[in-house]
Write a structure and sequence with these properties.
- The protein has 2 helices and 6 strands; from the N terminus they run αββββββα.
- By secondary structure, it is α+β, with helices and mostly antiparallel strands.
- The chain has a single domain (4-118), classed as Thrombin, subunit H (Beta Barrel).
- Strands 1-2-3-6-5-4 form a 6-stranded antiparallel β-barrel.
- A hairpin with a 3-residue loop joins β2 and β3 (46-51).
Length: 119
């Protein structure tokens, strides 16, 4: 029998890299900080975070990830959300506005951060 987790894993387009790091969530149009969050994992297509910020489905956000060697922020769209515990939500975010070269650069930056966290 195939479990729910197995089915979900098989549907994934990209393998996930588990990583626990803090981030700031801001509005792309105003730069207003919407809240803080914790990145739980990264994949080539997006990432998942946990946050007390109440983000609307399909909303665009910018993330500034602690320790990520970056120029500015990571742009993403909320594609999944669910409450996890009192006052906290789990979000699935899809990267937006990245061409294949930028996507590869972002992947290398996350891998570098992951390696730095392990040393």
């Amino acid at each position: 029998m195939i479990s729910f987790e197995d089915k979900t894993y098989r549907r994934r387009k990209h393998q996930r890299l588990p990583i626990i790091v803090l981030c700031d969530i801001s509005a792309p149009d105003t730069g207003q900080i919407l809240g803080k969050g914790c990145v739980l994992n990264y994949s080539r297509g997006g990432l998942s975070i946990a946050s007390p910020a109440n983000l609307a489905f399909d909303s665009e956000v910018n993330l500034t990830v602690d320790g990520l060697d970056q120029e500015g922020f990571v742009a993403a769209k909320v594609v999944n959300s669910r409450p996890v515990i009192d006052g906290f939500y789990a979000y699935g975010l899809e990267f937006t506005g990245l061409n294949p070269i930028q996507r590869g650069q972002l992947e290398r930056r996350f891998k570098k951060l992951f390696q730095a966290l392990l040393t």
